[in-house]
């Protein structure tokens, strides 16, 4: 059993997508980040960076004590290795997957995240910041579109954790001011993953957990006003 500390963000969706695909039993423990639940001491003991998602594997392969893990990319890698699914075992295939997983973690996620912030949440529009992150998101979409021109999935012909990491960050493309019609290969890939039964189930779980997916004024102060003192 996997305990999943979760909220309905792109990084949270990555893990539910994997667990649904792999058929691994899991228990969702909601962490309402708009209410500051990510600063609870019991959560910080698992995820010291006070970010979701995090997991606790109650039955690790070595038979020892439960293993806590934070950072969505590390969680995907861990679960793939534990289950023997969605990560090739050969050195070349694994290298293909891992470089695109890191591309998402170091590029697409942070840039699209800043896009979300300055386009949707900043208290006043800052034209330079909006243009900077909308344009960089557009560039990254172009990189992905070119990559998918001659292959079904990001790492080749097989669906992997790299695809699961990237897909949730493309879901809000309209809010990122991106038009998928400009990226036909990406659009094809996106539609294929959206139609997978496990993807449908994962996003249905999100709708059950967060019935009002809006960010209130109070939530903004929690989410965007953090400093080292926030950790207590």
TrEMBL record:
Signal sequence segment: none
This protein's UniProt keywords: Transferase
Residues annotated as domain GST N-terminal: 1-87
EC supergroup of this enzyme: transferase
Domain GST C-terminal: 90-213
CDD domains, per the entry: GST_C_YfcG_like, GST_N_Ure2p_like
GO MF terms held by the record: glutathione transferase activity
EC number: 2.5.1.18
Entries under SUPFAM superfamilies matching the protein: GST C-terminal domain-like (SSF47616), Thioredoxin-like (SSF52833)
Family statement: Belongs to the GST superfamily.
Family annotation (PANTHER family): DISULFIDE-BOND OXIDOREDUCTASE YFCG (PTHR44051:SF19), GLUTATHIONE S-TRANSFERASE-RELATED (PTHR44051)
Name of this chain's protein: Glutathione S-transferase
């Amino acid at each position: 059993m996997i305990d999943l500390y979760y909220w309905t963000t792109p990084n949270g969706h990555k893990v539910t997508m994997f667990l649904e695909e792999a058929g691994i039993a899991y228990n969702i423990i909601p962490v309402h980040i708009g209410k500051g639940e990510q600063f609870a001491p019991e959560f910080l003991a698992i995820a010291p960076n006070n970010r979701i998602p995090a997991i606790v594997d109650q039955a690790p392969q070595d038979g020892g004590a439960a293993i806590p893990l934070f950072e969505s990319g590390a969680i995907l890698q861990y679960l793939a290795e534990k289950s023997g699914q969605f990560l090739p075992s050969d050195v070349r295939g694994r290298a293909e997957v891992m470089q695109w997983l890191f591309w998402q973690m170091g590029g697409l996620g942070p840039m699209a995240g800043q896009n979300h912030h300055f386009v949707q949440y900043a208290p006043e529009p800052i034209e330079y910041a909006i243009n900077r992150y909308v344009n960089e998101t557009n560039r990254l979409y172009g990189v992905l579109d070119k990559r998918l021109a001659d292959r079904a999935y990001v790492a080749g012909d097989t669906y992997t954790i790299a695809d699961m990491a990237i897909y949730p960050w493309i879901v809000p493309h309209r809010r990122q001011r991106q038009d998928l019609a400009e990226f036909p290969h990406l659009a094809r890939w996106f539609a294929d993953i959206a139609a997978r039964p496990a993807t449908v189930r994962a996003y249905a779980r999100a709708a059950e957990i967060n019935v009002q997916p809006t960010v209130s004024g109070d939530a903004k102060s929690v989410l965007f006003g953090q400093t080292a003192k926030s950790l207590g």
